Amino acid sequence: MAERGAHLTATVLNKPSIFEVVAQDTLTATFKPAAKRVVQFFVARNPERYGWLSQWFEEVYLVFNGVLQSHYLSYNGGSFAETFYGLQRVCLKAGILPGKLPRREWLLSLFFLTAFPYIRTKLEELSVRYQLEEADGVAPQNGWPKTGRDTLIKFHQMLHLFWELWTLVEYLRYLSGRSNTHSPALAIARVALSYAPDEENDCSWTQMWQAISSGSFRATIPSMKTVGSVFTRGLELSAFFIQFLQWWHSEQTRTDITALPVPDPPPIGEHAERFGGLCPICMNPWKVETLLSVSGLVFCYRCIRTHLIKTSTCPVTHYPATMEDLVRIYPAQS
């Protein structure tokens, strides 16, 4: 019993440095924007075929992230980012040895890695949309719809503030050595990060390649483990590419656009001549002018909002579009 307790204590107290913790958190936050850029690339190449990926990106990413994190939690005892940095999750309950997480801790870990970020994103989208509608004067002015909207906006603001403050407190406690967890999610799940043990491969990559070259490769358990290891390692190495893309994009956005030459104005398109001064949906003068950035056309806010909720495409060009692509236009004061 003493040996088991000593083994558990040594594992739990073998905490990674704050730099490794921040690095894996950064990789986790980088993965979703990188995936979104990949989706946007395919949508731009073929909007008709891949437009649904843009419309349902949050749901598609939720499924993909759920499968990915579930695999890593089951076989590596940690998330994708944690495994990439050689970390694993250790249950803080007494008497439980490191290894596979218990059912409760596994489910809570999966929830905070996948479902919780999705819920926060959806709450933020609703909150921003309701605030914009309130500012533009198209939101309900009384009754339970207004009460419900105001309640959701306040709930999202309080949740965001509470979670960020709790995260800061956990980081400070982790730095001071008073806590084994650095985030509220780990504290709720009662798990901590620790260094993962070195893996022992039954069949090395070199041996597998020699077997393939000699024609003696068989789908044995050791070889299939190696194939799985090759796939997962390739996925993990792609994280370097993801971080490079993020760095490259940040460097590009730092360029001072005022130092670039001013291009000639584009010619007036047929859509602009056809709908000049009119909303392409209701064919009346604009009310609360709103630009749809994917097509450059101006609509009434109520018209384009209703259309995007139903179809998530531009009504004229049929390009995929969301509420995030709307830009409010304020007429010049005369």
In a few lines, what is going on in this structure?
It comes from Thrips palmi (Melon thrips). This is Peroxisome assembly protein 12. This protein has 334 residues and is mostly helical.
List the helices and strands and how they pair.
Blueprint: H1 2-13, H2 18-45, H3 47-55, H4 57-76, H5 80-84, E1 87-91, H6 103-136, H7 143-175, H8 184-189, E2 191-195, H9 205-214, H10 221-253, H11 270-274, E3 289-292, E4 297-300, H12 301-311, E5 326-328
Antiparallel strand pairs: 1-2, 3-4, 3-5
Please characterize this protein's 3D structure:
Mean pLDDT is 77; it is low at 1-12 and 219-225. The protein folds into two domains: 18-195, no CATH class; 271-328, Herpes Virus-1. The protein has helices at residues 2-13, 18-45, 47-55, 57-76, 80-84, 103-136, 143-175, 184-189, 205-214, 221-253, 270-274, 301-311; strands at residues 87-91, 191-195, 289-292, 297-300, 326-328. Helices cover 62% and strands 6% of the residues. A hairpin with a 4-residue loop joins strand 3 and strand 4 (297-300). A three-stranded antiparallel β-sheet has the order 4-3-5. It has a two-stranded antiparallel ribbon with strand order 1-2. The chain has twelve helices and five strands. The radius of gyration is 26 Å and the shape is elongated. It is mostly helical. Residues 25-250 form the Pex N-terminal domain. Pathway: Protein modification; protein ubiquitination. Belongs to the pex2/pex10/pex12 family.
